Structure formats: structure tokens, C-alpha cells
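Sequence in, structure out.
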Amino acid sequence: MKKYISLFGLLAIISSGKAQITMAIDTIFANEQMTVSLFFPDPIRQGVTGSSNYAFSFNRERAQYFGLLQATPGEDSNLLVVTQNGGVYSYLLRYSQKLEKLNYFIDNSDSIGHERTGPSIVPQVKLSLADSDTIPNSYKALDYPKLCAQLLRNPRPFDQIKYKDGVTIRIAKSIYYLNEVYVVFKIENGSQIDFEINSLDLYKVNGNNKRKSSYQELLLSPVYQFQRPTVVPKGEQVQFVCVYPKFTLGAHERLMVKLEELNGHRDMATKLR
């Protein structure tokens, strides 16, 4: 009987030790000036942050063991990572201007469980897009067409970006889901001439374009486009959705939209935040 008691006592000590190791990296601090690296024992398959002011990026084309974390000022959030072998890791995220640690080497013992053997109950969440800029992470993953169609069915307020020669481009507040950003655009053609779209690009810009040495433009390439037209007929308006990899904006960064006309001169470019 004493042998059994000793065995249970040893297991309790080991469990307690593991809990202490987990608590040491339970909260990860990040900001927009530095990149925080997280190295996992197995290649990353999926990584999700709970708030739009945190961005966790990893290689989706070729499985790698590390991911990169950045943040902009905002409330605390969380990070959930699933590795190729099904290991599940969860951490709290907090913004901090000063970072004492830039690299986290994560051990197998830090896993909170396995996706096949751990709890599998997913709460039922009603998807409401009209009053939120973040789609709940607990909602089951939808494919691009279904989610984009739902975004267009839910009326959202648009901000006017630019107006030129009867053509107006508007944009709605971005929607964050998993590691992607959904942006709804609307183009109105109030002129008497069809507007043929040559290109519509979204950029992340840093600095002032009057000071070329410090000015940078980073093109954000969409991973999917839903109902994007090639022509906006005269007197009509169109709405469409572009899906981009998740990004954050630093203190001195802004978004810029460029709309160019094919075989015409009604080109527009403007910055927004």
C-alpha cells in the first residue's frame, strides 16, 4: 500500500512541476516594434489569436517549427496553436512597450492536450457581423464563398475613400477571422461612362512620401476575392470582398487603397487608418 501511495505522490509532484513550467511562459508579451519568435517541438499547422491587435504568422505552404508574433496597443488576448502531430498549446497575450524576452522555446510538456483526446465540445455561437469587427474563433470554419456572401448580406457602414469624375470607392471596417482579414469594398459609378477596373490594390504604408528615404509601401496581396467585378456599369454600384493575410498597423503605419481604370485616367489613391 505504501508503494502505491509513494507512486501517487510522485505523480502529483511531476504534475505540479509541469504546471510551474507552463506558468513560466503562460503570458507572452509583444509589441509593434519587435518580432517575438515562438519555437514549437513540432511543425505548426494552425495558429489563432483572439483579438485583431495581435498577429501570429507562420509558413502555411511549408510546415515549420516557428511562428512570429507582433501586436499593437489594445486589450489582452490569447493565442491557440495546433501542431502537425495534434498537440494543442494555449497562451495569454499582452501588449508591452518593453520586451524582456524575444524568443520562446516551447517544450512538449507545455501542451495543454491533444486535439483527438482532449475536450471536443464547441459552444454554439450565433454569427453576428453587423456589430463586430471580429468573427468569433469558436465558430466553425466556413469556406470563403459562404463567409463572404454572409458579409455582403449583412449591411455595414461604409466610409467614403475617394471621389473622382463621378466614381466613388468606399470601404467598410475590416473583419478579422482566424489569420485573415476580410475587407468589403463598394464602388459607385455615377458617371455616364462604364468604369473598367485595371487594378485595385491595398497597401500598408509607413512614413511620409515627401521624404523618400523613410517612405515604404508594402503591397497586401489578397488570398481570395469574392464577386470582384471587372466593370462597374454607368449609374450602378457593386460590392465585393477581398481576403488578406492577417496584418497589424504600427503607430506610424496606415492603409492605402489604389484604384486604377483600364484605358482611362480616373485613377484614385488615398490613405486611411
